[in-house]
Structures are given as C-alpha cells and as structure tokens.
Amino acid sequence: NTMQGGWSNIAGAGNMRQSQETRSPFDLARISQEGYRSGGFRSINEEIRPDLRGNPDLAGVGIFFQQSTKASFAYVQSIIHGSSADRCGLIQHGDQLVAVAEAGEWPRNVEGQNLHMIRDKILGKQGSFVRLQMRRPSTNEVYEVELMRGSPEFIEIMHVSSDLKEKQISSNARIQELESQVAMLRMHSDRLQAHAQTVQVEEDPRIGPLEEELSARMEDLRRFEEMLLASKEKTREAILARDKFAEQLKDVKSDFDLLKEKLSLSKEEESRLVHENESLKGQISLLKHEMQVLNAELQSKTKNSEENEALVKQIEVLRSELQSIKERDAKLGQRLTSGHRAIAQAMKEQQAAAAAALEILPSFDLIHSSMLSNLRANSNLQQHSEHSTKMADNEPTRQKLYSTSSSAASSENKLQYFA
Fold first, then answer.
1. How many CB atoms lie within 10 A of CB 76?
2. Residue 250, in any domain of the structure
3. CATH code for the domain in which residue 106 is found
4. pLDDT at 2
5. pTM of the model
C-alpha cells in the first residue's frame, strides 16, 4: 500500500523465540502464528512486484514496516494480529528496526537500507528463526527478540503436536510408573504367598495379618492394573487424534497450494490482458490515423458528390464499429472485474474457513465438513474462471481492436501484494 510521505512493506507473520537454549521446538511453536508469503511494496513513484512462484516457501514475522523519506530507519507501522510479533508482546507501534540476523549469527545493522533490502533479510524458510534488534524512541531502549517464521497452518499443527506429544510423554511416564508399581506388588505378593505356604497356620499367629496384607496388596495390584489399562487407552486415543489432525493438516496445505496456483494463473491472465490492451491501443491509433487520412481524402474530393457520400458512409460505419468495439470492451472489462471479485471472494472464504477450522479443532468432523465445502467452492470458482476465459478467447479478432486501459488499471490496482 502507498503510505503518505514514505514507503511501506509487509514482512509477514511467524513466531518468536526469546531463548533458543531454554525452550524446545514445541515450546517455540506454541507461541507461533501466521507467516504471510512474500509480497511487495509500493513507493510513491513505482511499484515492485516480486514473483511469488519463485519463492513459495518464504514467510515472515508479521510486522508492517514504514520508512519515512526524511529518515534513515524503518519503524513499525502496525503488527498483524496473532502473528509472532503480536504474541511476543514486546514490539510496539513506532519502534525502530536497528539490526536483523539469522538465529546464531551476529546482527547486521539495517539503518539506511530501503524496505526492499530489509524485507529480503527478514523473509526466510518457514519454521526458521530471525532475530530483530529494535529501539524504542520514547526511552531510547534497545531490545532484541527472536521470532519464528511460519504459516498459520504450520504453527497451529506444531502447537497441537506439541500438546499431544507432551500428553503422550506424560502418559508413557505414568504407564512406566504404574508398571513398576505393579511389578513390585507382584514380587511382594509372591513373597507373601511363599512365606504363607511354609508356615503352619496352627503354630504361627502372624498368618492372619499376613493374609490380610496379601489381600490388600492384591487389591492394590488390581487397581493399578486398571489404571495402567486406562492410561494405555488414553495414549492410544491421543496417537489416533494426532494422526487424524496431521491428515487434516495435509488437506489444508493442499487447499492452500491450490489457491496459490489459482492466484498465479490470475496474475498471468492479468499480464496477458495488459499486453492485449497495449496491442489494442496501437490498433486504435492506427484506426485514428486512417480516419484522418479518410477525412483528408474527403476534403480533397468535395467535387465528386457520390464519392463524398461513399466516404461519409464509410466513416459512419467505422465510427459505428468503433462504438461497438468500445461497448464490447466495456463488457469485457466488467467480466474481468467480476472474475477478480470472484477470486477475491474465494480467497476470503478460504481464509474464513481456515480461521473457523482453527477455532473448532476439538470437533474434527466439523472441520472435515468445512474443508469439503471450501473445496467445492474453489472448484466452482475454477469452472467460472475457465468459462470466462473461454468466452473471451472466442471473441472475433475484429472485436479485440479496442480495450479500455482504465479497466485494466482498475483491476490491477485491486490486487494486493503482501510479503
């Protein structure tokens, strides 16, 4: 987006890690969130459009930076809700970016660099970490945070997998403890039974208490065995839930890749339309030149009334054809706008479906149903896009002699590019 008096850039969304030595990868993933794919930024006089297909796995940390034309530093304009920068809790609006470094590397000062260079340093592979050194202008305090890059699906599955693994580890430890206690109880019970067999009931008064103790130990053994079976059942359910969630994550990633492919095709179609628009502009200029030539010939042949009438009729026909071309071009622009709106609506529905899926994770059946609905919606959208493209390709060559550059420019400005 163009920002008054400066540039803007989206660095993405991911997660943060303050201490790599004291936290496991699952702990780090628990405080992670979305990483948007590499996008672009627009200055006052130009617009930079990166090729998303060249770097499909890049993700950022969720900070919207802005850079003043009079200052040499980039500062935080806004923070994406739920991102790693947001979950960090340290970064605030207006904080200045001092240095950027990969995990384990020495920070590199970025003051004086433009947003394009800063974005390239922040973006990275999903799941990797980046350290940002920030300065708070109000107190001149310099602090450092370590954030994880990653998409929302990746971070959420890491979070759930971490919980499931912790529960599994806890269950395994409990099972081992119960098995140890059961083994000890069995050994003690065997010793009591062996001792009872070697002692005469009439001669040793300790037999009664020993039998009572043996009965109590056997009851404890039975209870511990029941607890052991229950723990094993819970562990099995946790493993099944983890596998089911991993399968659903795979489906979500597949939907996301399909959506990226559709977006790429939409951009290719837009480039093709822009090229056709330039070609139509040249043809229109040629028609205007021919009309000027015809007007000159008309003026030079005023003595021949029949020729004048024929030329006037030809001019009217050309004007009528030009008007028809304009009307058809306007309809084509409307169809193009409708296609872009349908694509944008599909993207919103996909994002809404993903957000809903994250909110109702305990209900896997409902998630599965929502994903199927989204797949059907995407399929209908693809059919609609293919139908629109086929209709545009079947237009006669004569009907493509004009195109409104304002419609193409309007459609182009509606696309948002994020980093």
1. 19
2. no
3. 2.30.42.10
4. 33
5. 0.34
Distance CA(246)–CA(160), nearest Å, equals 10
Q: Which of 244, 269, 292 is the endpoint of a domain? A: 244
H-helix or E-strand spanning residue 394: none
pLDDT in tens, 63-108: 889 987 777 789 999 888 777 888 788 999 999 999 999 877 888 8
In this structure, the number of other CB atoms found within 10 A of the CB of residue 381 comes to: 20
Q: 205 and 167 in one domain?
A: yes
Residues across the chain: 419
For residue 10, what is the enclosing H or E element? strand 6-10
C-beta of residue 93 within 8 angstroms of C-beta of residue 76 = yes
Tokens of residue 48, six digits: 């930079």
Provide the β-strand partners of residue 141: 136
pLDDT given for residue 381 in this prediction: 74
Among 124, 137, 110, 3, which Cα is nearest to 64's?
3
Distance, in Å, from the CA atom of 59 to the CA atom of 123, rounded to the nearest integer, reads: 5
Contact 77, 66 (CB under 8 A): yes
SS3 97: strand
- How buried is 44 (Cβ within 10 angstroms: 0-12 exposed, 13-18 middle, 19+ buried)? exposed
> Which residue numbers in the chain have pLDDT < 50?
1-54, 200-202, 397-398, 400-419
